[in-house]
DNA sequence: AATATATAGGCAAGAAGCTTGAGCAAGTTA
DNA sequence: TAACTTGCTCAAGCTTCTTGCCTATATATT
């Protein structure tokens, strides 16, 4: 099995597991893509353009995704503090609670991995992966 | 950056790079998904159902993808040797040459990664990833 | 052997989620 | 202040998936 295939299957399995865990915690109306958005917003929010770059999609697509998250109560659009053209997308309380649930789900999903490799090597792998692809997008589809 | 995010960005970057390399070698009418199909077929072919499981999509979707690959000359459907219901999907010569091009492109794409981590650790990472998720699907979208 | 059920595959319609194209408002440059 | 750029969004369209249904063959039951 190639590195490419093993990377992809590992990523797919992990994302699917976390997605199931998030759904089991009551958040059944969102997709993994939305989680990628949340992680971009969690620090201090972001503009639609920044979300688009993070996901590797067009600004229009990012805008639609944000629309959906607004409608479902996970995020809201605020005026941008320093640029009246832009709008700052930030997590609502519901959005924050959902990211907590996702972190919980990630811990659960990684438990079986820690049993196999141990926390040490898992962290080492993460560090190596970050060195290999520090700033890439999280494209939701191919 | 989390393990999940680093896994996904690394996989995304690698897939995008290989896809570009394959396109640069003249195969501009296929997507990464098709490459995942090729890798499943390369041994001894596979049924549509097996392709569907490999990709993590419905049988109908897999059938449509195979339709497209047949139309473009990369694969063909043959009667299955031991089950008259099933059909064996196999690579054509064009399909085989395309998988070669993909392997070339993968080597190119991995060069910069070898510069960063070295071949040893890259192979070690692959082994670890295989242990973590041996039989997962390569879902083309979330 | 006859019947019931399961499995492989595919057609058609529809939905999800992206892109392209166009346009407005606000910022930046000359 | 005029020209251009940037941030965003509306609308339309397209790609690619799913759902629902159907046929043919295989397998299990009686």
TrEMBL record, chains A, B:
Gene Ontology terms describing biological process: response to stress
Keywords per UniProt: DNA-binding
SUPFAM superfamilies the record matches: Winged helix' DNA-binding domain (SSF46785)
Domain HTH marR-type residues, every copy: 1-134
Sample GO molecular function, one term: DNA-binding transcription factor activity
Keyword DNA-binding: yes
A UniProt-annotated Pfam family: MarR_2
Protein name: DNA-binding transcriptional regulator, MarR family
Taxonomic lineage of the native organism: Bacteria, Bacillati, Actinomycetota, Actinomycetes, Kitasatosporales
């Amino acid at each position: 099995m190639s590195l490419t295939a093993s990377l992809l299957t590992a990523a797919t399995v992990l994302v699917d597991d976390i997605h199931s865990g998030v759904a089991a915690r009551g958040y059944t109306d969102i997709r993994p893509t939305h989680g990628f958005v949340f992680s971009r917003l969690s620090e201090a929010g972001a503009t639609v353009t920044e979300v688009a770059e993070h996901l590797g999609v067009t600004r229009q697509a990012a805008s639609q995704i944000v629309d959906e998250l607004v409608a479902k109560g996970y995020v809201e659009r605020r005026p941008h503090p320093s640029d009246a053209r832009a709008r700052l997308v930030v997590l609502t309380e519901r959005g924050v609670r959902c990211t907590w649930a996702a972190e919980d789900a990630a811990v659960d999903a990684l438990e079986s991995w820690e049993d196999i490799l141990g926390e040490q090597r898992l962290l080492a792998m993460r560090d190596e992966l970050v060195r290999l692809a520090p700033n890439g997008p999280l494209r939701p589809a191919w």
